[in-house]
Specification:
The complex is a heterodimer.
Chain A lengths: L1 E3 L4 H10 L4 E4 L5 H7 L6 E4 L9 E4 L2 E5 L4 H6 L1 H6 L1 H8 L4 H6 L2 H7 L6 H7 L3 E6 L4 E5 H9 L7 E9 L4 E8 L10 E10 L2 E10 L6 E2 L1 H8 L5 H18 L6 H23 L1
Parallel strand pairs in A: 1-3, 2-3
Antiparallel strand pairs in A: 4-5, 5-8, 6-7, 6-8, 9-10, 10-11, 11-12
Chain B lengths: L1 E6 L2 E6 L6 H8 L18 E4 L2 E4 L12 E3 L12 H8 L9 H14 L5 H7 L11 H18 L1
Parallel strand pairs in B: 1-5
Antiparallel strand pairs in B: 1-2, 3-4, 3-5
Helix pairs in contact in B: 2-5
Chain lengths: 283, 157
């Protein structure tokens, strides 16, 4: 095994140019380090990203919030900017693992690892985030997180590229939130999660984006359920129709999975939670 | 490869291998056996140490990533004569039974109190949520951390 710890992006790119298939980018290590123990036969070349200052930015740039890929969940959870402009992401970050994991785990690692149960990914999708991917020469490609996910989960982003940052568009009167359920109340891996973002204007949610996580390899957008959120109808009947749409989405997505009886009901609990919180801001 | 880091207040330069975890470095190279290996996957918290003031599971950090960092383990908590208020409170409240989780509990609690000197009970519960104990049922530990925080704020007055 080899290990490198570049201090600048230039140094990182030089390592990437000289590296081969055995290159593995390492950030917080909360997923990769345990997996090294279970696969001792792999002779990897680890490259640590966690100390690259250029990947740790967290700031407003024009009309977007720029979040470096090596920003940790703890930093996201505590950031005033993230809590203000991307509440769903702060909420998701606050529910990832334990304090120890949140102190090390990074948003870039969460996305690059592309676990179906990731908490950060549905939040980024709902917020309409883009990801900046750079190659060994520093050339950047900007994709929506939704577009990038298939490439990441199939490991076809390429070994000589890295995630530089995430860009979340700033919108007036934006509102977002996140809810999840796992096998225990905290320090739990999502069995199901739900992220919602939109703009609340004059008591209505405009341009909602609702994503269900941990029901498929990648978050699934709940378009039919979104329509009920956008509607001015906030009656008990509308609420039930919204929850029915979520159940229908789960039934369509995992018709033959053993977890269907659980998830088709559990999604209603999460949906109900977000509907209630939305009611508080619509009122 | 060789790295330099600060461990319990002392700067150390150590020879490591690229596949070594921070946990292995602390236990095997530096003999700091308060750092316990439990689950080896960041779940149980027994290997918790402070890295630059923040609690981390040393089984999920590679040793080479710790270059230049400031590491604190239980061996560095007291000053050699007096115990840290947290250690004393753990003794006073019988927060130790078999003792295997205790170093990790202490370091998670230390990380919490450094950032939140007067935590609520809920904040203590969240702060310790990454540490498993199979003996105590957690209540004596919660009481100990609460008491240590109280003593700390009394001292500050």
């Amino acid at each position: 095994m080899r290990a490198d710890r570049p201090r600048t992006l230039e140094e990182l790119r030089r390592i990437l140019r000289g590296g081969g298939e055995e290159l593995r980018l390492l950030a917080g290590g909360t997923d990769l380090v345990p997996s090294l123990r279970t696969h001792p036969e792999r002779d990897l070349h680890l490259v640590d990203l966690s100390s690259l200052e250029e990947l740790r930015v967290l700031r407003i740039e024009g009309d977007r919030l720029e979040i470096g890929s090596a920003v940790t969940f703890d930093e996201l959870e505590r950031s005033f900017l993230v809590r203000t402009h991307a509440r769903a992401l702060a909420a998701a970050a606050s529910q990832v693992g334990s304090p120890q994991i949140r102190n090390r785990g990074t948003l870039g690692g969460n996305v690059a690892n592309a676990s179906p149960a990731a908490d950060g990914i549905p939040a980024l999708c709902a917020l309409g985030a883009a990801v900046v991917i750079e190659d060994e020469d520093g050339a950047e490609e900007i994709l929506s997180v939704e577009e990038a996910l298939p490439l990441l989960s199939e490991r076809s982003v390429g070994v000589r590229r890295y995630l530089r940052s995430f860009r979340i568009p700033l919108r007036r009167s934006s509102w977002s939130d996140f809810a999840k359920v796992g096998s225990r109340r905290s320090v739990t891996i999502s069995k199901l999660n739900l992220a919602l973002a939109g703009c609340v204007e004059e008591g209505r949610l405009r341009d909602p984006r609702l994503f269900v996580g941990a029901v498929a390899p990648r978050p699934v957008r709940a378009l039919e359920a979104e329509a009920f959120l956008a509607s001015p109808d906030r009656s008990a009947e509308a609420r039930t129709a919204f929850l029915d749409a979520l159940t229908a989405l789960v039934e369509r997505t995992i018709p033959a999975r053993a977890s269907l009886p659980y998830k088709r009901r559990a999604i209603r609990g999460l949906g109900d939670e977000l509907w209630t919180r939305l009611e508080e801001v619509r009122a | 490869m060789r790295i330099t880091l600060t461990v319990n207040g002392v700067q150390r330069t150590v020879e490591i291998t690229p596949d070594m975890r921070l946990l292995d470095l602390l236990r095997e190279r530096l003999g700091l056996t308060s750092v316990k290996e439990g689950c080896s996957e960041g779940e149980c918290g027994a290997c918790t140490v402070l890295m630059d003031g923040k609690a981390v599971t040393s089984c999920t950090v590679m040793a080479f990533q710790a270059e230049g960092s400031d590491i604190l383990t239980v061996e560095g908590l007291g000053d050699g004569k007096t115990l840290d208020p947290l250690q004393q409170a753990f003794i006073d409240h019988d927060a130790v039974q078999c003792g295997f989780c205790t170093p990790g509990m202490l370091m998670a609690a230390k990380g919490l109190l450094l950032r939140t000197p007067a935590p609520t009970e809920e904040e203590i519960r969240v702060g310790l949520s990454g540490n498993l104990c199979r003996c105590t049922g957690y209540l004596p530990i919660l009481r100990a951390v609460s008491e240590a925080a109280k003593r700390g704020s009394d001292d500050a007055r």
